[in-house]
Design goal:
Length: 515
């Protein structure tokens, strides 16, 4: 067996035009560069507009690999397009004509064997990268493709092949199923990469709003971290300061002439498993209105809880809905819309759709302030605060262990429930008691004061009464509107953190300190 030439990761430098995506680039280059003399498979997925194609095309350029982007077409046309792409890549004077996908797959794996690689590119002696983008389009018309690839992968574990095959797609339910328990490709992949939206800090840098946290927070609450929305959709139409935000949102997201206007609907329609959009929009509307439990969603849309299991599962598989466990109550959970634009659509746009289509964006937005605060900005701010604790704020804690989430603490004496928006808790094991490292409350439009801190303190006492270890549990107040002087004085004494927008975006350090 011939020695395979190592394609060094250091030679695969991320182009400057690719914003952020450092961990993703490192994972991809490590996959491509691995000096193994047999074929390898990687799965790359992510919702549309995340920049998957942009990222993979940059990688292909660096490696001198082969890229094929599938389209919605019949099996015969798709095979013809693939044959033409291979012929162009190899520089063949004679057009390729694969009779079946079996022939096409066999050619790719065999041609990547020692001495037969079909390229004279810059790394002709190294691994041969092949990217098949929008793979679900091909699976739809040729469902045997995963089985054909599985057979070839198994064969070229014994025989030499330098192929590094990346299958990419945006239909999350389809891509997630490729490696499921009974799927042909189960156990065959060496890489499973989900390209996610930018985090809130990276998104602020991308939109050029990092120096204006109040603006950055609102942009992220509406559009999230989807890179395509700035460049492809809005052609760099970005508000320069908070004072321009209202006018900007009316001429972009709320304008029937903007490509963002119907984007939330398209995101739902693009998922292959969603065949009744009305039902799925109703489920999402229920969550956007604050009905976040399974029972609450079912009641809102007039169905039984058992009847909404399928749409909930499909929305989870599509990464449009997330089920988040209550960190204090076993078996309890709440649902959250993960795509901010869909949440904004369901909360603000859908109830006033006819008026928006009629060009009344300014009137609708002027009347939507309370809904935006309660149903969009508030819940999104809570999620950002949890992201902060998971990331840059982790160093503030006395422990690096624990689950970050939210939960409800029941106060039987006062006959009330205390909602804890940000909690870091660790389940007990090995004889150790469950412990809590942080309890936090997050408010978007409220100046926080001592009553908020007292409520958190009461929750801590109740958890201690339930046998949890709270000896090193700190308290944190997160507010986009600020803090009272009395609360600031209390934070200066220790045991509590005050974290506003400047702290969330890394412009200043949090006030106060934890035990």
């Amino acid at each position: 067996m011939d020695r395979i030439v190592v394609l060094s990761q250091s030679r695969l430098t991320k182009p400057s035009r690719v914003f952020d995506r450092g961990p993703e680039w490192s994972a991809l280059t490590a996959f491509v560069s691995r000096p193994l003399p047999h074929a390898m498979l990687g799965i790359v997925s992510g919702r549309r507009r995340m920049g998957k194609t942009y990222l993979l095309r940059a990688l292909v350029e660096q490696c001198g690999g082969f890229y094929f982007g599938a389209t919605e077409a019949t099996e015969a046309e798709s095979l013809r397009q693939f044959s033409a792409a291979v012929a162009e890549y190899t520089g063949s004077p004679v057009p390729f004509s694969f009779a079946t996908w079996d022939d096409a797959v066999s050619y790719l794996f065999g041609a990547a064997g020692s001495g037969r690689r079909p390229t004279g590119g810059p790394h002709a002696d190294g691994p041969f990268l092949v990217v098949i983008d929008e793979f679900p389009y091909l699976v739809k018309v040729a469902p045997e493709l995963p089985s054909l690839i599985q057979r070839a992968i198994d064969r070229y574990q014994a025989e030499e092949s330098r192929l590094r095959l990346l299958l990419c797609g945006s239909a999350m339910s389809v891509m997630g199923g490729l490696l499921a328990s009974s799927a042909p490709l189960r156990g065959r992949a060496q890489l499973e990469l989900v390209v996610r939206p930018f985090g809130y800090r990276a998104a602020a840098d991308f939109w050029g709003s990092a120096a204006a946290p109040a603006l950055a927070a609102r942009l992220h609450a509406v559009l999230g971290g989807t890179p395509a929305y700035r460049r492809q959709f809005l052609a760099d139409d970005v508000p320069s300061d908070l004072g321009e935000f209202d006018e900007w949102i009316c001429r972009t997201v709320l304008s029937p002439f903007s490509p963002l206007f119907r984007e939330a609907r398209y995101l739902l329609a693009e998922e292959a498993d969603i065949r009744d959009p009305a039902l799925y929009h109703s489920v999402l509307a229920a969550v956007a209105q604050g009905n976040t439990t399974r029972g609450g969603i079912a009641s809102y849309i007039g169905r039984k809880s058992v009847d909404i299991s399928h749409p909930l599962n499909v929305l989870e598989d599509s990464h449009l809905l997330a089920r988040e466990a209550d960190v204090f109550r076993a078996g309890k959970s709440q649902y959250r819309i993960t795509e901010p634009l869909i949440n904004f659509y369901e909360a603000v746009m859908r109830p006033a759709w006819a008026r928006l289509e009629g060009g009344q964006a300014r009137e609708v937005w002027a009347q939507a302030g309370e809904r935006f605060t309660a149903q969009v900005a508030g819940p999104h701010f809570e999620a950002v605060c949890r992201e902060y604790v998971l990331g840059p704020g982790r160093s503030l804690l006395s422990t690096s262990l624990g689950e970050v989430g939210s939960g409800v603490v029941t106060d039987p004496k006062e006959r009330r429930q205390i909602q804890v928006d940000v909690a870091v808790a660790e389940q007990g094991s090995g004889g150790n008691r469950p412990s809590v490292a942080l309890l936090g409350e997050a408010k978007w439009g409220t100046v926080m004061g001592l009553p908020h801190l007292e409520r958190l303190g009461r929750a801590r006492d109740l958890l201690a009464g339930r046998g949890m270890d709270v000896a090193h549990c700190g308290l944190a107040c997160f507010s986009a509107a600020g803090f009272s002087e009395a609360l600031r004085d209390e934070a200066a004494r220790g045991g509590v953190l005050l974290i506003g927008l400047d702290e969330l975006y890394g412009r200043t350090m949090p006030s106060g300190f934890l035990p």
